[in-house]
C-alpha cells in the first residue's frame, strides 16, 4: 500500500480528528494524533492566535513528543509565526512564559494523565488562558476546510530553542512560598516519569526538604504507568516506609497534584481547596468566602464549607470552566477534586508543583503536620466513580437519550432522597462514560454505581 501523503497546508482533515475536547485535542498517536494533524493545527493556530509576539511550545516526556513538536513548529512557521521551543516542562510553565514575554500564545504537547501511547495538544491564548470556544471553533473550521484561507503569509517565521526561559518559571515557584523553609521536613515526590522531573526535586531540595524521589527521570515509555496522581499506591508505600511527613504525586504534565499524609491517607483536590481556602479566609483574601469547584467535588466538602459561612460554586468538569467562573465571579481560589488547583494570586494556571509547595507552606505555617490537619478536616461522603468504555462518541455524548439509563438515574436519586447524588458524563479526553455515585450510605454508593454502570454498558455498547 502506498504511503499517504501529508495534507497540504490549508487542506482539510477529517472532522473527527480535529475537535477540541475538555482539554485540547487528545487521543491515540498514529490514529487520532498524527504529524498531519499537528502540522495543520500549528498552521491554523498561527493564523487564529493574536498576531503579536512569538508562539511558545512545550512538551512532556512522551516518545511521540519530538515528532509532534517538529510538525507544530513547521505549521506555525509556515503561518509566519516565530516559535520559541521550551522543551520538557510542566504545562503551567507555558502560560507563565506567555504572560512574561507578551507572546501571542502557546501550545503544550501532552496527554496529561493518559497512557504513553496517547498524546495531545493544549492551546493557550495571549492571556495565558486556554482557548475559549470561539477561538477553538475558528481553528477547527480551518482544520476541516470550513474556513476560507486568509490573506497570504508575508514570510516564514523562525524557530528558536529556548529552554533557558524555564528558569523564570522555577524562580516564580520558589518565590510563591514567601521565604518558607522546609528544613527537617521529609517529603516523597512521585514525578511520574513526566514533566515534573524537569524541576520538582530541585525545588524541594532548594527549600531545604529531605527528598525521596520516585519515577524521577523523563521516560515517555512509562509516563503515568502505575505511578503519579492516578496511581497513588507507590507514593503511599514510600511515605510509610520513609516515615515522611507528606508525599506529592503529579500527573504526566504536572498540572495536577494529589497528596498523601504521613499515615498514607489521600489528600485530594477537595481537601486541598479546603486547606487553602481556610488560610485565605483567615487572611481576608477570599472574596465572598467563595471557592469554585466542579460537579465532581464531594458533598461533604460543600456542606463543611457552607458550615463555615462559605460559598461553593460548581462548574462543569474541566479547569477551563473553573477558570472562566473564577474570572466572572472574581474568585481567588478554585479547582477540581482530581488535583487541578487555580489560584488568582499565582496566575490562574493549574500547577501541581505550585500546589505542592503551597500545601507544604501552609502545613509548615500551622505548626502541625498534614496528618493532624486532615484529622480535623471535613468527612467526605462515600463516593465511587466507574468508567465505562463506550467507543462511540455519539452514544457517549447523547447518553441521556438512552431511556433505561436516564430512568435508572432518576430512580437512584429518588431512592437516596437528598442524601446522595448521581453524576453521569462523557469524558472529554478518553472514550469513557463516567458514572459517579455519592451518598451518605456506602451501600447506596456500591449498589447504584454498579447498577448504572452495567446499564450503560448494556445499552450504549449494544447493537
Q: Which descriptors apply to this entry?
A:
463 residues; alpha/beta; Alpha-D-Glucose-1,6-Bisphosphate, Chain A, domain 3; TATA-Binding Protein; 3 domains; five-stranded mixed β-sheet; disordered N terminus
Summarize the structure.
The protein has 463 residues and is an alpha/beta fold. It is built from 15 helices and 18 strands. α6 links the parallel β7 and β8.
How would you sum up this structure, described in words?
The chain is of the alpha/beta class and 463 residues long. It has three domains: 15-167, 3-Layer(aba) Sandwich (Alpha-D-Glucose-1,6-Bisphosphate, Chain A, domain 3), CATH 3.40.120.10; 189-380, Alpha-D-Glucose-1,6-Bisphosphate, subunit A, domain 3 (Alpha-D-Glucose-1,6-Bisphosphate, Chain A, domain 3, 3-Layer(aba) Sandwich); 383-460, TATA-Binding Protein. Helix content is 37%, strand content 19%. It has helices at residues 35-48, 65-78, 93-101, 133-143, 166-175, 200-206, 233-242, 269-283, 299-307, 319-329, 352-366, 370-375, 393-397, 403-416, 442-460, and strands spanning 25-28, 55-59, 83-88, 105-109, 118-124, 159-161, 186-190, 210-214, 246-250, 257-261, 266-267, 290-294, 311-315, 333-335, 341-343, 383-389, 420-426, 432-439. It has a six-stranded mixed beta sheet with strand order 1-5-4-2-3-6, with helices on both faces. Strands 8-7-9-10-11 form a five-stranded mixed beta sheet, sandwiched between helices. A three-stranded antiparallel beta sheet has the order 16-18-17. β12, α9 and β13 form a beta-alpha-beta unit. The protein is globular and about 65 Å long.
Amino acid at each position: 500500500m502506498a504511503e499517504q501523503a501529508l495534507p497540504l497546508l490549508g487542506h482539510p482533515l477529517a472532522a473527527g480528528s480535529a475537535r477540541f475536547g475538555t482539554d485540547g485535542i487528545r487521543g491515540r498517536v498514529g490514529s487520532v494524533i498524527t504529524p498531519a494533524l499537528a502540522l495543520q493545527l500549528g498552521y491554523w493556530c498561527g493564523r487564529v492566535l493574536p498576531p503579536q509576539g512569538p508562539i511558545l511550545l512545550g512538551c512532556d516526556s512522551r516518545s511521540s513528543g519530538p515528532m509532534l513538536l517538529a510538525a507544530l513548529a513547521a505549521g506555525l512557521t509556515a503561518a509566519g509565526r516565530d516559535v520559541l521551543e521550551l522543551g520538557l516542562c510542566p504545562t503551567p510553565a507555558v502560560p507563565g512564559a506567555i504572560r512574561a514575554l507578551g507572546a501571542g500564545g502557546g501550545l503544550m504537547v501532552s496527554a496529561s494523565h493518559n497512557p504513553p501511547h496517547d498524546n495531545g495538544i493544549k492551546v493557550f491564548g495571549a492571556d495565558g488562558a486556554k482557548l475559549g470556544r470561539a477561538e477553538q471553533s475558528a481553528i477547527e473550521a480551518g482544520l476541516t476546510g470550513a474556513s476560507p484561507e486568509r490573506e497570504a503569509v508575508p514570510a516564514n517565521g523562525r524557530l528558536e530553542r529556548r529552554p533557558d526561559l524555564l528558569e523564570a518559571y522555577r524562580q516564580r515557584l520558589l518565590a510563591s512560598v514567601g521565604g518558607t523553609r522546609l528544613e527537617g521536613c521529609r517529603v516523597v515526590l512521585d514525578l511520574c516519569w513526566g514533566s515534573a522531573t524537569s524541576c520538582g526535586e530541585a525545588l524541594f531540595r532548594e527549600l531545604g526538604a529531605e527528598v525521596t524521589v520516585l519515577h524521577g527521570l523523563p521516560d515517555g515509555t512509562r509516563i503515568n504507568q502505575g505511578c503519579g496522581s492516578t496511581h497513588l499506591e507507590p507514593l503511599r508505600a514510600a511515605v510509610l516506609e520513609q516515615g515522611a511527613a507528606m508525599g506529592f504525586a503529579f500527573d504526566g504534565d504536572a498540572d495536577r497534584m494529589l497528596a498523601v499524609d504521613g499515615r498514607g491517607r489521600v489528600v485530594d483536590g477537595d481537601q486541598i481547596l479546603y486547606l487553602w481556602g481556610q488560610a485565605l479566609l483567615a487572611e481576608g483574601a477570599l472574596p465572598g468566602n467563595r471557592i469554585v469547584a466542579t460537579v465532581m467535588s464531594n458533598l461533604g466538602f460543600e456542606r463543611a464549607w457552607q458550615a463555615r459561612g462559605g460559598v461553593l460554586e460548581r462548574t462543569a468538569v474541566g479547569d477551563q470552566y473553573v477558570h472562566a467562573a473564577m474570572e466572572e465571579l472574581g474568585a481567588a481560589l478554585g479547582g477540581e477534586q482530581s488535583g487541578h488547583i487555580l489560584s488568582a494570586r499565582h496566575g490562574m494556571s493549574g500547577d501541581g508543583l505550585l500546589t505542592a509547595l503551597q500545601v507544604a507552606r501552609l502545613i509548615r505555617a500551622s505548626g502541625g503536620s498534614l496528618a493532624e490537619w486532615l484529622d480535623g478536616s471535613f468527612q467526605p461522603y462515600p463516593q465511587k466513580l466507574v468508567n465505562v468504555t463506550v467507543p462511540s462518541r455519539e452514544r457517549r455524548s447523547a447518553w441521556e437519550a438512552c431511556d433505561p439509563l436516564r430512568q435508572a438515574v432518576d430512580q437512584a436519586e429518588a431512592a437516596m432522597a437528598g442524601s446522595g447524588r448521581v453524576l453521569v458524563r462523557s469524558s472529554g479526553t478518553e472514550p469513557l462514560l463516567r458514572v459517579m455515585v455519592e451518598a451518605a450510605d456506602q451501600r447506596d454508593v456500591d449498589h447504584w454505581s454498579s447498577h448504572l454502570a452495567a446499564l450503560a454498558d448494556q445499552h450504549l455498547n449494544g447493537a
